Amino acid sequence: MKSVKIIIIVLLHLSGNIGNACSMYKITKNGKTFVGCNHDAWLTTPHIWFEIGSLNAPYGAAFTGARYDGKNGYAPQSGMNEYGLVFSRLSSYHPEIKNLNNKLKITNPTFYLKDILHTCKTVEDVKKYIEKYDQSYFIEDVFIYIEKSGKYIVVEPYKIIEGNDASYVLSDFCPSITSKEDAKRLDR
């Protein structure tokens, strides 16, 4: 009887809806911008690290991440540079589109993400940087870059959305293909 109770408890525990939703928000008020990020995952190696600028990548930055990428170190999940430029990476769904453009291919995503914060001051700088590359490499991701003024860009695999709302919330979806009603009731 005791083993039956244990099995039932284990089955009930395993049958629960386990969510791994990432989310972020930004609020700009009285000339100050605040950003918060939540990265839910099963990765057990979270890290925070700092990188100083160099001749080719002049701006220092702090990053968070948990996925080790070999010689590249940890892949950043979010970060902020010394100019207050912030980014957050969230998982998302976007149907694949045959992308027949002549943009540069991303061959080292960890370097690519770090280099943006090491070389850009504003979201306009980020947009110019990103527009050179085929973002479909990140087919399962959506990014947001926010500068200290409160301006932001949402970077999807095939689209960049610019904004300057006083408050903005983003979770695991691409705004260009998700209605506001659907975004409010996304399953975890």
Q: In brief, what are we looking at here?
A:
This protein has helices spanning 2-15, 109-119, 123-130, 180-184, and strands at residues 23-29, 32-38, 47-51, 61-65, 67-68, 74-75, 78-81, 86-91, 141-146, 152-155, 160-163, 167-170.
Q: What does this protein look like?
A:
The model is unreliable at 10-19 (pLDDT under 50). The protein has a single domain (19-184), classed as Penicillin V Acylase, Chain A. It has helices at 2-15, 109-119, 123-130, 180-184, and strands at residues 23-29, 32-38, 47-51, 61-65, 67-68, 74-75, 78-81, 86-91, 141-146, 152-155, 160-163, 167-170. The protein is globular and about 45 Å long. The strands form three sheets. The chain has a seven-stranded antiparallel sheet, with helices on one face. The chain is of the alpha+beta class.
Could you give the topology of this structure?
Layout: H1 2-15, E1 23-29, E2 32-38, E3 47-51, E4 61-65, E5 67-68, E6 74-75, E7 78-81, E8 86-91, H2 109-119, H3 123-130, E9 141-146, E10 152-155, E11 160-163, E12 167-170, H4 180-184
Antiparallel strand pairs: 1-2, 1-12, 3-4, 4-7, 5-6, 7-8, 8-9, 9-10, 10-11
Key words describing this protein structure:
single chain; alpha+beta; Penicillin V Acylase, Chain A; 4 helices
Low-confidence stretches: 10-19
- Percent of sequence in beta strands: 25-35%
Tell me about the largest β-sheet.
7 strands, antiparallel
Enumerate how many helices there are, as a single number. 4
Output the CATH topology.
Penicillin V Acylase, Chain A
The arrangement of helices and strands along the chain is HEEEEEEEEHHEEEEH
In total, the number of strands is: 12
What is the CATH first-level class name? Alpha Beta
What number is the mean pLDDT?
80
Tell me the distance between the termini. Answer: 35 Å
Radius of gyration: 19 Å
**Helical content class:** 10-25%
What would CATH call the homologous superfamily?
Penicillin V Acylase, Chain A
Structural class: alpha+beta
CATH architecture: 4-Layer Sandwich
Main-sheet strand order equals 3-4-7-8-9-10-11
